[in-house]
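[User]
Um, tokens okay?
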Amino acid sequence: MTTALFAGSFDPFTLGHLSIVNRILTFVDEVIIGVGVNINKHYCFPTEERIQRIQAIFAHNSHVKVMSYEGLTTDFAKTVGATILVRGVRSCKDFEEEREIATINRQLSGLETILLFAEDKYTNVSSSIVKELMHYGKDISEFIP
């Protein structure tokens, strides 16, 4: 069984993230969405709410699990039995940084790390951009599932 871990803080989970998860599901048996928790980071939504929102999106899909974790993604990957780590890439300018992180993840865990872009229309929309739009009271419905 091939299990992929797609990890991040996902605050909020965007259509770009959904696009990446759907792409992952075309080549693995199971996707674990790891919702990162860092007590030093300010989140828009509490951890439980982030998890519940993502679970609701995938309620119909038994091949997707949502879990929270603290610490290193590579340690969490070992804990949940992931065989592949997936990192989402928002834009070409992020690609080099993500590739370096992927190399470090491979070295730390020995697991293959795959970089995936979201669909073209969502590649430049990140959680931080959506969070900023929310802060200013803007309509974010076109960015979140």
About this structure: Residues 37 and 70 are 5 Å apart (CA to CA). The chain has one domain: 3-135. The radius of gyration is 15 Å. The helical segments are 15-24, 47-57, 73-80, 92-109, 127-135.
